[in-house]
Amino acid sequence: MTGVLTGKVAAVTGATSGSGRAIARRFALEGASVYLLARGPERLEELAAQLGPASTGISTDVGDPGSVNAAFDRMAEAHGKLDILINNAAVYRPCPLESLSDEEIMAQVRTNLLGPIYTCRAAIPLMRAAGGGDIVNTSSESTIDPFPMLSIYVATKAAVEALGTVMRAEFEREEIRVTTIIQGVALGEGGGSTGWEWDPQHAAAATDRWVEDGLLQKIGGIHGGQDVDHVADVHLYVVTRPRGQKLEVLRCRSY
């Protein structure tokens, strides 16, 4: 297949649902060899079969450095390089801070913050071998309009934005471009999979508070957010910019 990403090797975290799935599909349609990173092996196998032989699913816990290193070792063995890394995986739990369990706190910190740290660390040598590359980290509009009852999620996303700022300064001389996408509501997104469900009372209370504060209307949550395919369009735009063009931080939202 010939497309704008033909010859490129890409890795997408959180690849089996929501925006991650849409991004992986778009990259595959554009000719990239796409590595699908997510937890569930069955969903990975199903998606890889849909996207074709150039797509490979690897069951990966991005919050586990050993799991991440093993996944990137497979990419290195197969291609010796990586051109694109999309850090899309994230989990959140609407809950008052004082009611969060240790498990709920650490699940969000491990996936949302340590995950991008581990994947970026593993990707840098492979991008250096490629002569440069694109890292796209996903943040959230909740860092701009902070949502009550999303304290850990917002804190981890703010940290990802800071991580991107420092990485740009550290690696831009090596043609490794780091872009942060501050993403608004996308239809089809979920809260991520960690093996436990939201507390329905906390979720209902959070939703009521967000409506009361006008946050859902402000970001389009009630009237419908952007489609995940639109989010995929933005990611394709970012990674196909000429090498001398930097976007740095890009806000992706409905209007």
Question: How would you describe the overall organization of this protein?
Answer:
- The model is unreliable at 191-196 (pLDDT under 50).
- The chain has a single domain (9-252), classed as NAD(P)-binding Rossmann-like Domain (Rossmann fold, 3-Layer(aba) Sandwich).
- It is globular.
- It contains eight helices and nine strands.
- Strand 2, helix 2 and strand 3 (55-59) form a beta-alpha-beta unit.
- The strands form two sheets. A seven-stranded parallel β-sheet has the order 3-2-1-4-5-6-9, sandwiched between helices. Strands 7-8 form a two-stranded parallel ribbon.
- The chain has helices at residues 18-29, 41-51, 65-79, 102-130, 151-171, 200-212, 215-219, 228-239, and strands spanning 9-13, 33-38, 55-59, 84-87, 133-140, 176-183, 186-187, 226-227, 249-252.
- 46% of the residues lie in helices and 17% in strands.
- The protein is an alpha/beta fold and 255 residues long.
- The longest helix has 29 residues, at 102-130.
Write the layout of secondary structure elements.
Layout: E1 9-13, H1 18-29, E2 33-38, H2 41-51, E3 55-59, H3 65-79, E4 84-87, H4 102-130, E5 133-140, H5 151-171, E6 176-183, E7 186-187, H6 200-212, H7 215-219, E8 226-227, H8 228-239, E9 249-252
Parallel strand pairs: 1-2, 1-4, 2-3, 4-5, 5-6, 6-9, 7-8
Helix pairs in contact: 1-8, 3-4, 4-5
Radius of gyration: 17 Å
Poorly predicted regions: 191-196
Please count the beta strands (DSSP E, at least 2 residues each): 9
The class by helix and strand makeup works out as alpha/beta
User: What best-fitting shape do the alpha-carbon axes yield?
Assistant: globular
Q: What share of the residues does DSSP label as strand, in percent?
A: 15-25%
Report on the biggest sheet: 7 strands, parallel
Lateral arrangement of strands in the main beta sheet: 3-2-1-4-5-6-9
CATH fold category name: Rossmann fold
